[in-house]
Structures are given as structure tokens and as C-alpha cells.
Amino acid sequence: MNKLVNVLTTTDIHGFISNGGQPPALALQEIKEKYPNSLLMDSGDFFVGNPLTTYFCDQMQVSPMVDYANKVGFDVMVPGNHDFDHGLNYLKRQVSHLNADYVCCNVFDEEGNWIFSPSTIKEIDGIKVGVIGLLTSRMSMISDFDVTTGVVVKEALPELQKQVAALRDQVDLILVGYHGGIERDLRTHDETNYATGEDETFKLVSQTPGIDGFSCGHQHRINHGQIGDTLVVQGGYRGNCFGHMTFEFNDQNKIVKRQEEIVLTETLPAKTGDFYSEEDYQNWLAEDFDLSHLVEFLKQKFTREHLGIFISLKGKTRQQVIDSFTIPYGVRIYRLTSSEYQVFSQQDWALKQENYDSNAHDFLVLTNSYEVPEYRLTDQFVDNIFDEYSYYLTQRN
């Protein structure tokens, strides 16, 4: 009788396990009950990504995300770029309390040693499954230097190829969990992204023979399909859906059938959560926030010469500061003419610093305001200013 292995994949949970309102990720606590003979893996950006996880970092040594991961029953997990946002030591502390194996083959320390195991082997109903972890090659472009100090992220492709070659004769099934996105349409193979190296799923799979299943993420998109014989799934955001790959094996443990799909998490039984004190969290949000170093932080983060900083705030509490920065573009940079700058700079700003050459004829301004002509937009950033500034304060103190 043939054997069936269910591979279940999540990605970009970003800490959305709020006790109230039954968020989709809570239903994942029932996922392994629905799918027998399964391996459950996460492809990164799990621990960090919203004010709740900042609260966990600020108040607790071990995040409730660890308890959540253990209750869901993850077998293998992979780091995402945001999982490093509170520093490597914080991430390693969380990993040390996980029941899951934490793997990544292209993240090294400065001495050239793997920070996490490059891969792991699991056995599901007599089938040996090798799982390789992988992080986007362009970590340096999308993460601040200070949070990745001591971390060396090497090019994904050669490191992946080494691991596949090492595992292929040891296992019956090879899976990859990749925190990066898809740069081509899975059906037409047309390019959908600029080739920056941040999202390389098509390149990695097409140039690495021997991969059976590939789970990616990072872009918060939903995709599934095949590249050659390799199944590919990309499971959305906040646990709104998950990837499901099925592999059927004959009695020689050879794959005879494979199939992939994306499943909405709402198809699982709804679950509530009790992973932290909601009252304590709300009290923390209501506390006044130290804003005295925010301009200093923004100057260091967005190193531009003669950059004016103009920040509008809805108040001084953590919640009011959070509400002051629109998601996903918390701050943006505009280039204004002299007359436009004069009007803009005279508005009522909670935090303001002008920094320009006295002979300037145009002006760069960094602001969280959207009351600026769109045709003057120069750059916009998806950085979560509240979370990053909170971490900055802990490091400064």
C-alpha cells in the first residue's frame, strides 16, 4: 500500500496571535489534527512584526510566540529577515526554547560557522524527509546594520546546492523552506520582480535539481504551482492560509504522485488563545513613550545629508505613536522646491528638525505626513518605525 506524506507550510505569521477576535493564526493549533502523517514547517518572519511582539520583547525573556509554536506543533522553522530585528541574541534565546528544529544553510557567524543547523532529517511514516532552511541573499539591503552585526548571509544558490547534494542520497524527500519571494510567474515564467536578489525562488529551484517541495514567503503573497518537478507554495500573511503539498510513495519509497495547493486557514476549527495577559498589554500601550531620541534615531537610520525631519504625532502614548505611522509606509522622503518647503515647514509638527545648506534651492524632507504632493515623492519605506525605535531605546539604555 502506498504511503502519503502531508507537508504543511506557513510563513510571515509576524506574531499575529492576539488573544481577542480569533485571528486566523490561532486556528493553526488544529492543523496537525486534520492532516495525519504530516510535517509542519514555517518559512520565517515568525517572531517579530507588530506592536504585540515588541511588547513581548520589551517585557519578557521568552516570547509567547514560542509557546504558540510549540502548541501548534511545528516540526521545522526557518528564520526570516524580521526575526533578527531585536538582535541575534534575542532570536537565539527564542530558538533555544522551541521544540521545532531551526534551520538555515546560508547564515553564518563572522568566523564562518553556521549560526543554525543548515538542515534536518525527519521521518514521517517510514519516509525520510530532509529539510533545508534558506534566507534571502539580500539581507543587507532590507535590514539595519546594527541588528545583523555578527551575522553573515551568503548567496543562497551555492549554499542551497551544497545542501541538496549532501542530502539527496540520505533521504526520500527533500524540502526547502526559503524566506524570500517569487520573481517570476509560476505559470508563464515571465518576470514579475526586478532581479535584485531579494526574491529568487524561480532561480533557486530551476538551478538546483533534486528539490521535491519548496516553501517560500516574504512578499505576503499567495502562490502555488510547479517549477519542473518541484512543488512550490507561498502561504500569504498572518496565518490567513497555508501551503499543503502531498507526496505519495510506493513500497520502494519512490514518489509516484505529488500535488500542491493553498488552503484558507478558516477551513480549520476556530481557536482562541491565552498566550499573554491582554490587560497588561493594553496597559503597556497606554503608557507614555520616550520620544526624546526619535529624531536622533531617524537621522541615524536614514542617513541623508541635509535631511529635514518633520514628524506628526497623535499623542505621547505607545498606542498614539503607533497610530501616527501609517502601514506599510511609515515614513517617506520628499524633495521640495524652496517655496513648497517654506509652506511645509511652517505646519504644526510634534517633532521637527531642519537641516539644510543655506544656499539650497531644493530640500529633502523625511515625514510621516501624507499632506505632500505625490509628485514630490522620492522614497518610501516599509520599516515599522515604532518597533525599530523601541529596540533602539533598549540598546541605547
TrEMBL record:
GO cellular component, one term: outer membrane-bounded periplasmic space
GO BP term, example: nucleotide catabolic process
Family matches, as Gene3D superfamilies: 3.60.21.10
GO MF term (any one): hydrolase activity
Domain (Calcineurin-like phosphoesterase): residue spans on this chain: 7-221
Pfam families: Metallophos
Protein name (Swiss-Prot/TrEMBL): Calcineurin-like phosphoesterase domain-containing protein
